[in-house]
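Practice record 12: protein with 2-acetamido-2-deoxy-beta-D-glucopyranose.
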Amino acid sequence: MRENIHVAQSTEDNHHQRQRSLITSLRSKLANTWITTKIFIFLLFIFLLSASLSWMFTSVSGESRFQVTSIFTRNTNKSTTTTTNIPKLLIKIPLNCKAVNSNTTQTCPSNYPTKFKPEISSSETCPDYFRWIHRDLKVWQKTGITRETLERARPNAHFRVVIKSGRLYVDQYEKAFQTRDVFTIWGILQLLRMYPGQIPDLELLFLCHDRPAIWKRDFNRKRKNTWPPPPLFHYCGHRDAYDIVFPDWSFWGWPELNIKEWNKLSVALKEGNKRVKWDDRVPYAYWKGNPHVSPIRGDLMRCNVSDKYDPMVRLYVQDWRSEIEVGFRGSNLEDQCTHRYKIYIEGNAWSVSEKYILSCDSMTLLVKPEYYDFFIRSMVPMKHYWPIRPNNKCGDLKFAVEWGNNHTEKAQVIGRQGSEYMMKNLEMKYVYDYMLYVLQGYGKLMKLDVTVPENATEVCSETMACPITDGGLIRQCMDDSLVMSPSVKAACYLPKPYGDYELKRFLKKQERTERKVEKWTDEYWNLRGPT
Ligand SMILES: *[C@@H]1O[C@H](CO)[C@@H](O)[C@H](O)[C@H]1NC(C)=O
Ligand SMILES: *[C@@H]1O[C@H](CO)[C@@H](O)[C@H](O)[C@H]1NC(C)=O
Ligand SMILES: *[C@@H]1O[C@H](CO)[C@@H](O)[C@H](O)[C@H]1NC(C)=O
Ligand SMILES: *[C@@H]1O[C@H](CO)[C@@H](O)[C@H](O)[C@H]1NC(C)=O
Ligand SMILES: *[C@@H]1O[C@H](CO)[C@@H](O)[C@H](O)[C@H]1NC(C)=O
């Protein structure tokens, strides 16, 4: 831009010089006659006129040049750049509900976009936890997934999802607890709205219980009739299981517990965080939940009371039944960022509470879990959380809290880094990107004719949301999480999967850190003798 302006300026200078030399030569030739004098005056007049016109032109073009430059400068302003990047053809796909009083059944619109090319190609790499996708699908890499392999997962599945030409069909076998199945299917529908044309044809089976179901011990490479294991989608994984890890329903809402969809809730948590500064927070470890879902949680309750020393923890039983009765006044997650330390402990399997606990800017004391959801696997001890041994909870917790109160800056950094992980790496866009890559990878493995079963029905956002008109939280969660237009930004760039050696090194490093913390803890307690 700037160079162009220079070029324009020097051309104008040449123009003036040429005009001037032309007039000088004319004058020398014609100066001796009166006529020539008249002509000269005339020419001088023309010259002055052209010069003034030229000056006016220059000033006008100068003005426009100034505008060009100022637009150029403004374009470098980030906020303006985002507005100018809004594509002219932004497609909006609002819910297309039939009139409320019409009693014809709601159908799926036929005019959903089937293709959409994102305008902004992605330059950012996805968070590290995407590197596990490949490993979750690896066991089918050689064989692919045949009809026979897939159908062996059916006895464990709550429903089958068939995606064909961008439309989604569901065959439900069993009702899931609360609205787990509803919001899981809703989430996949939103993914289809977000990335039209990018999800391949596929059939998948989904399990909505807490625990995985495809245990490695039941499948063996040497026994042909069990190999490869059946692919089953589930909310969490385990090192001894083959279940394919997928985001749980809570990202789109958990209305039964008044938990809003993640987009809205993460903003509320960010705000809630500002209410009490870290230094002003209660210098104890906080946990509130249902202790009856697993023995390890019941065991945790023992840490609350001790007549020998202050255990430094504050544990509270969440009685959901009474919470429901009082309108969830005592269970607002954004009101729970009041302690410097928060405890995460899994329930029957992974716990949905994990992302809420880690979002508080408080240092998370993470009781080493057995089950993992899709994003926890790349979190690092002492960077994002403080590791706690499951078989030494009370002692480890007390030491961690004392350490944090003695090293407040370091404890704050761990708390902040954990929350940054949740707020950045777990933005809804990344959750959808993760689902996209899992389904694309899974789709590549399909060695069967994707067919819509006779009992399946087509499902879309309209058929799910429109009939719900009671003004309740289910519909609100749906409205809040509805993807209104295809993503103008492409999915993040998928990082290379972990190589065997690289993964071993990553896990070794985590283990070394855990050992180091254990050593500090044990030294502290050895000095004090048994309690
Ligand atoms: C960019 O835009 C914002 C908001 O319009 C404004 O406050 C800011 O001063 C601008 N920055 C520059 C470098 O022009
Ligand atoms: C549809 O609504 C009309 C009146 O609003 C009613 O008479 C009719 O029975 C309804 N049909 C069905 C199938 O519910
Ligand atoms: C734990 O201790 C706190 C404070 O003393 C108390 O309010 C709370 O009810 C106790 N929790 C349990 C589960 O006993
Ligand atoms: C914290 O500091 C106190 C007082 O200096 C000390 O007695 C205690 O051992 C320290 N605890 C830890 C865990 O560092
Ligand atoms: C479809 O549903 C009917 C009735 O519930 C049942 O008898 C039939 O076996 C189902 N078909 C398949 C293929 O599952």
